[in-house]
Amino acid sequence: MLKPRLVLSACLNLERTRYDGKLIENPVAIKLRNFCDVISVCPEISIGLSVPREKIILYKDSKKIKAVEIFTGKDFTEKLISFSKETIRNFPEIEGFFLKSKSPSCGVSHKTKTYKDIEGEHLYGKSQGIFAKQILKAFPLLPVVDEEIIKNKDELENFFIRIFALRRLRELKEKAKDKRDIISFHKKAYHLLMSYDPSGFREIERFLFSKDTAFKEILKRYENYFKKTLAKPFSRGKQINAILHILENFSKHLGEREKARIFHFIENYKRRKIVLSRVIRELKSLLQEKGKTFPEFYLEPYPEELEELF
After folding, report:
1. Could you say which of 22, 54, 233, 301 is the most buried, measured as most Cβ atoms within 10 Å of its Cβ?
2. Which residues of the chain fall below pLDDT 50?
3. Measured between alpha carbons, how far is residue 180 from residues 167, 171, 184, 298 in Å?
4. What's the CA gap between 172 and 178, in Å, rounded?
5. In 10 A of CB 144, how many CB atoms?
6. Distance, first Cα to last Cα, the chain
7. Would you put residue 225 in left (φ > 0), alpha (ψ -120 to 50) or beta?
């Protein structure tokens, strides 16, 4: 399977960039390094700070939230913003971001402590890191997570599905020569897209089959549609509907015991006892037993080896 480009906080990439020099061993990040092309980033090291260093905290003054050195109040906010914007400009095409939670630079999940004082004694609230805010602003249609977000199994699976789907999209953009390539891709992506937005096909398919639009314009519009669709909320209900739609195509080939078998897995998924990939693997196995080929991205959402993380 193609490798997505993943921006990974350097400390999650087994680099000793944390302010106290401690090593962080996150099992998801460690595993993903085998399946992604990693771009390692540490905003604090990149603006010239050392390891070890005084801790940076978020501090709310009368006007805005700043990233300051604890006790001294030395302000690194503008340096971090400048670094973020420059780095974003120079990124190649990215499929996703996995950043350090609770970090004053990288925290995504609104869990970074923010203080009323530079001594870090009086809590103002919790917010996002300086770098994370710039990433979310620049890449609203890409998956951006930290460790806190992916503690939720659905969020973790959603992240895996999206980064590998977006990598397939990048391959389409690199290799497509005419509209037929986009249509062929869309047929393979059909149930993947349905599992995020069951009602979003009509307009894009009418556009795909139009005769009056240039190929590059079609490809650009399809890319935007694909990314917007996968940015919609992930839900087990929509995933089950997509699976049932696939089953409808093959129901006449399945006996009662086989139907009961797959519905057992669907029910366990509905009850949150298993993750989606376990249902999909069973569905794929069932189709293969029947000698049915179904060349869809939905049946191979991400490498099976990642299932051990759930």
Report:
1. 301
2. none
3. 19, 15, 6, 20
4. 11
5. 20
6. 20
7. alpha
Residue 8 CB burial class (10 angstroms; 0-12, 13-18, ≥19): buried
DSSP summary character for residue 296? -
Q: Per-residue DSSP letters for 194-228?
A: HTT-TT-HHHHHHHHT-SSS-HHHHHHHHHHHHHH
Q: What's 95's domain CATH number?
A: 3.40.50
Query: Which single residue is written with the structure tokens 């490498």?
Result: 303
The reported pLDDT for the residue numbered 254 is 85
Q: How many CB atoms lie within 10 A of CB 240?
A: 17
Residue the block writes with tokens 């087990």: 236
Determine how β-strand 144-146 pairs with β-strand 96-99.
parallel
List phi, psi (to 5°) of 97.
Answer: -130, 135
Q: DSSP code of 4?
A: P
Q: Per residue in 186-230, pLDDT tens?
A: 999 999 999 999 988 888 888 888 887 889 999 999 999 999 999
**Domain of 90, in residue numbers:** 5-50+77-112+129-151
The angle at the Cα of 228, spanning 225 to 232, to the nearest 5 degrees, equals 135
Say yes or no: 136 and 184 in one domain: no
> How far is residue 119's CA from residue 103's CA, in Å, rounded to a whole number?
17
As a whole number of angstroms, the distance between CA 96 and CA 144 comes to 6
